[in-house]
Amino acid sequence: MSEEELLDVEIKEDFDIVKARARARAVAATLGFELVDQTRIATAVSEIARNALVHGGGGKMTLRAINRKKGLEIVIVDKGPGIPDINQAVKDGYSTAGGLGLGLGGAKRLMDELRIESSSVGTKVTMRKWLLGELRR
Amino acid sequence: MEEAGRASFIKIEEFLLATPQEAMRDLAAVRFRDDVLRRVKESRVNGLILDLSGIDVVDSFMGRTIGEITNSAALLGVKVVVIGLRPEVAITMVEMGVSIGQVHPFLNLDLALKFLRDQRSR
Predict the structure, then answer these.
(1) Contacts of residue A18 in chain B, CB cutoff 8 Å?
(2) Measured between CB atoms, does B13 come within 8 Å of chain A?
(3) The domain spanning residue A108 has which CATH number?
(4) What ipTM goes with this model?
(5) Which of A90, A135, A89, A82 has the alpha carbon at shortest distance from A112?
(6) Residue A11 in contact with residue A52, Cβ under 8 Å?
(7) Which terminus of chain B is more solvent-facing, meaning fewer CB atoms within 10 Å of its CB: N or C?
């Protein structure tokens, strides 16, 4: 997978969450991520994809291999009403959907980078995991 | 490729062994929860053994659902043990902060059965 090659997964129903994380795991394995990192990536994707479905009414995941620094970038976008208070949303225990409130904060801990851009017309979450990221932390 | 979420149920001695066999979509996880609790009630077992070896991702939703199973089963009056959690899944759960309720984890079925038999004879 070259840097230019994109891989998209539509997120329209709950089974697409399973598909998205399986796809992300498979790509991560291809890029050389170990089992624990594959699982971290799949779990973070699961959280963010569910947010896109539940709060954003569905969305799309795009995977991109980053060649220069050896890593994986995952972008999940939705066209929902946006997150009013991002700082609040990444706090543990904050939930508007009746969950554990660990989704965004948990995903952030599992990945090396997580950036949220949100407005009234949608939300874009960009996550990155670097190969050997664990040894650099 | 992950599929929709089958599960198996086996009665061992006086205990129910419940095993999700693959990754579950959210709807399947909720159905599995209800199915386990119904079977616990109907089969009049003394203990529930939840085998999570087939689960490759425990995110906050799955964690909450497993917690609902273990806590509810405990309320029904059975001892609940969890076996087979994959190491990489355990690491991820710890980092996420996902807890699955007050539950006795065991490395394998033998140790879980030993514990449950011991609990029963007390």
Answers:
(1) 2, 23-25
(2) no
(3) 3.30.565.10
(4) 0.90
(5) A135
(6) yes
(7) C
